[in-house]
């Protein structure tokens, strides 16, 4: 008996890419830093909010790589000449990835009170009904 995967199911034609997309998102890491929220702001729009306290705008980079939204943060260590008796706030880097569906566009990114908001929107898909003529062979 062969293993039946999502991409090889006989009624799901052309969905092989979806299986690769699921594998890629599973490999993107499950670490908990920084914490984030994903909210639906309307029927066709979303907002990703990351808690990035201590990061400045120039410490953050947002890129879109092959339908994958990647948010990276890298703080510069400004501890030159400073003597810490306790260092509980570390200069830490991170990378968060979100796989976006086809048709989802990245809007603006806003930094507010230590929170990074990234707005996403999805265009309303057109409903197309196509008649296929049958020709004689």
TrEMBL record:
<dbReference type="InterPro" id="IPR002068">
    <property type="entry name" value="A-crystallin/Hsp20_dom"/>
</dbReference>
<dbReference type="InterPro" id="IPR008978">
    <property type="entry name" value="HSP20-like_chaperone"/>
</dbReference>
<feature type="domain" description="SHSP">
    <location>
        <begin position="27"/>
        <end position="137"/>
    </location>
</feature>
<dbReference type="InterPro" id="IPR037913">
    <property type="entry name" value="ACD_IbpA/B"/>
</dbReference>
<dbReference type="Pfam" id="PF00011">
    <property type="entry name" value="HSP20"/>
</dbReference>
<keyword id="KW-0346">Stress response</keyword>
<comment type="similarity">
    <text>Belongs to the small heat shock protein (HSP20) family.</text>
</comment>
<protein>
    <submittedName>
        <fullName>Small heat shock protein IbpA</fullName>
    </submittedName>
</protein>
